[in-house]
Amino acid sequence: MPYRLDMSMMLVLHDALRREVERVARVAAKTGDDPRRILAAAAGWELFKKFLRVHHTTEDDVLWPAMRGAVTADGLALLDAMEDEHAAIDPLLDAVDAALVDREHGAGRLAGLVDALATGLHGHLRHEESDGLALIDATLGQEEWSRFGQTHRGRIGDDLTTYLPWLLDGRTPRVAAALLGNLPPAVREAYRDDWRPAYDRLTLY
């Protein structure tokens, strides 16, 4: 649906989170090697955790509070649901990490935990896209929306050099060009010359 606010970065990030949790699920389902050993050493798992946590905490700290004084009771219920879904998803990251180092029971727990993580994340992203984005668009002004984006970028911090190529991993040239086109020329050049090549050299899983 068309939005008044620019939701392109939010939607690209959601797609990146879907991509990564599916990659993690494929590793957890491996039978020929110990998936715990693979994930414990995987740059991809670390990046996924870091960027998901930044996204959820910035929504909880900045986005939802900015909306609470301006929405109806139904809107408040939706914001409560968004926070509850975060609260159910985020501890699963720690539970997966605990399974990775649990020599006695971790192997038996890992697949179920990753399945719960994937199911919860997919459901949350669908919910946010079907209902949450429309509420954001109807509630926030451009200044408040920009503040959320700036805070999110600030929390990414020095990891921007990895975040941007991670975000665009697997995206079509058209989507990548559209997103990069909104960035300063110096950032686009750094992405092309340094950040993307360094990302491509990572062993993600």
TrEMBL record:
Gene3D superfamilies: nmb1532 protein domain like. InterPro entries: Hemerythrin-like. Residues 13-131 form the Hemerythrin-like domain. This is Hemerythrin domain-containing protein.
